[in-house]
Amino acid sequence: VGVSSTAVAALIGNIVIAFLMIPDCTAFREHDKGFKLCVTSRPGMKDLSHQNLTSVPPNLSNNTQYLDISYNFIQALKGAEFSGLSQLCFLKATHCGLQEISPTVFTHTPALKVLNISNNDLPFIPDISLKQLRVLDLANNVYTSYQLPASFQNLTKLELLSLGSTAALSINYSDFDPLMNVPLQHLALGAGIQWQKYDSGSLAKIKSLKKLSLFASFCGTFGMFENLLVDLNETQAKSLRCITLLPDKCNVSDNPFMNLRRMPFMQNLTIENTWINSSFMEGFLKNVWLSSLYELSFVNITYYEDTPDGFVFHNINHTISLSSVIFNGVNHYQYKYPTINMSFEAFSGLTYLKFSGTGMNILPCRVMTVLPSLETLDLSDNLLSESGFWWTPCSHSTVFPKLRKLSLSKNRFSSLSYISRETHQMNTLESLDLSFNSIHLDGDCSWPAQLTELLLGNNNLGNSVFTYLSSDFKRIDLSKTGITAISQEDLSRFPKLTHLQLSSNSIQVIPIDLTVPALVSLHIDQNAITSISKESLAGIPRLQELKAGSNPFVCSCDSYWLIITFNKSLLLDWPFDYACNSPPSFAGFSLSEYKPSELSCKMWLQAAVAVPVVLVIFAAMGLAFHKCDGAWYTKMLWVWIWMKRRGKKRANILNNVSFSYHAFISYSHQDSDWVDSQLVPCLEGTGFSLCVHERDFVPGELIIDNIINCVESSYKTLFVLSKHFVQSEWCNYELFFAQHRAIGVQQDSLVFILLEPIPIDSFPKKYLRLRSLLRQQTYLEWPKDEKKQQDFWASLKSMLHMADKSIVLKDVALAISDTVSLITDQE
Ligand SMILES: *[C@@H]1O[C@H](CO)[C@@H](O)[C@H](O)[C@H]1NC(C)=O
Ligand SMILES: *[C@@H]1O[C@H](CO)[C@@H](O)[C@H](O)[C@H]1NC(C)=O
Ligand SMILES: *[C@@H]1O[C@H](CO)[C@@H](O)[C@H](O)[C@H]1NC(C)=O
Ligand SMILES: *[C@@H]1O[C@H](CO)[C@@H](O)[C@H](O)[C@H]1NC(C)=O
Ligand SMILES: *[C@@H]1O[C@H](CO)[C@@H](O)[C@H](O)[C@H]1NC(C)=O
Ligand SMILES: *[C@@H]1O[C@H](CO)[C@@H](O)[C@H](O)[C@H]1NC(C)=O
Ligand SMILES: *[C@@H]1O[C@H](CO)[C@@H](O)[C@H](O)[C@H]1NC(C)=O
Ligand SMILES: *[C@@H]1O[C@H](CO)[C@@H](O)[C@H](O)[C@H]1NC(C)=O
Question: Which of 314, 406, 462, 510 lies at a 20 to 30 A Cα distance from 527?
Answer without folding.
Answer: 406
